[in-house]
Amino acid sequence: MEFNRRLFLGAMAVGLGASRFSSSKLWAKETAAAQPAVAGPKVVAAAGKFLQSLSDEQRGLVQFSFDAPERLNWHFIPKPRKGIKLRALTGPARKSAFALMKSGLTETGYDQAVKIMSLEEVLFLYEAGDREKRRERRDPEQYYFSVFGTPGMGLWGWRVEGHHLSLNYTLDGEKIIASTPEFYGCNPATMESAPGRILRVLGNEEDFARSAVTKASEATRAKLIVSSEAPKDVAGPGAPQPVVEAPAGLTLPDLGTESATQVRALIGEYLANMPEEVAQARLAEIERGGWENVHFAWWGGLDRYQPHHYRVQGPTFVIEYNNTQDGANHIHSMWRDVRGDFGKSIG
Predict the structure, then answer these.
(1) Parallel, antiparallel, or unpaired for β 191-194 and 153-162?
(2) Where are the domains of the chain?
(3) pLDDT tens, residue by residue, 70-82
């Protein structure tokens, strides 16, 4: 079952009437009536099938021990990686690699991931220089798959990663216990091929945040805009654990109802990438921490193509987004667990 974005947004609209900014009873009632399909067993099956589809040599490239340092070695820049890249896979192995990636995402998240991968071909065509060097750097099939431990047995994990995409999962048997760092980026962020034909892979992640600022009163806006200059990138890119800074900006109650609604919709966009059980677990953690303790902050300009940056931060999570490069048409965004990524609490 895919995370029900429409229901979530409807629940938020009702819930915002509550003084403590809790999610509405509508959400609890509907989700109790239809428990989410559990993704963990599907992930285990997909990972097992993927490994079985590989040759012994390929499996040697893909599989690491669970405690291998490589498990924490994540990044989103274009570079060679450990694991096996999509370009090296054919037939059943290639099909099973995509199935593994799909098993850890909703249709929404999978669609975004595939579009991000396809943008590498656009960059290959856009950029100048030696063709072979460009292809080495810009390749929609240069995304690497890795498995850590044995699927379904004790603690194990898997990763798919390449330029502007890093998806990291930690499981205990068939239970997903961690799904961060989760990174989505895109370049170009907006691409117009013809009048009326526009591709914006992370468009909602930009629009809801900007709307939260523009819908705020002038006095409120002055407090939630931290600086007219945006940071150059997200905090701690590639760091094994998140760089957790003091919350900035304003809490949701202090934003006002209209702006707070937009922030909650923004959070819903990020939740929509993950399987229902992961999205609901994240939402439950936000609820326990208190919606009133969720902060939203903005840096930079408010017009499209002006460098900008935002952060949504609560007691358990931080969403960070940056769009400052290439004429503010190049997005980096991530969801991280402020208590520690990669299931840090397990050891």
Answers:
(1) unpaired
(2) 40-178, 193-346
(3) 999 999 999 999 9
